[in-house]
Amino acid sequence: MLMENLFILPIVEAGNAGTKFTKANEVTDIINKLKTDDYTIIENKANQNSYPDEDHRVFDNVDDKGENGISQVYYVTVEAKKPPVVVTDTQKATVKYVVEGKYSTSYR
Asked: Is the pTM of this model over 0.85?
C-alpha cells in the first residue's frame, strides 16, 4: 500500500510462544527486493522496533488479546536512494565578441 511518500506493507502472523516466526522468509524476501529496487534501510522512528535478527524471531508469551493489544510489532523503514549526479556531456561556452565603433576612411 502506497500513501503519498509512505509505503506500508503489513504482514501479520501468529504462533505459539517460543516458536519461530512463520513468515520470516517472506519478510526477508521483501526487504531484499526493496534493496534491489534501490531502497536503503534506514533507522526507524523512536519507539518503532526493528525487525529482529534471525536468532530472535520467536513468538513471545504475551496474550495479544489482552488490554495491551499486540505485543510484537516490528518496522522496516526504507528510503529511496538518491540517484548520483552524473555529467555525461560537457558544454563549452562560446563567447562572441562584437566590436562597435566608428570606421572612417579618408581619401586625399
From this structure: no
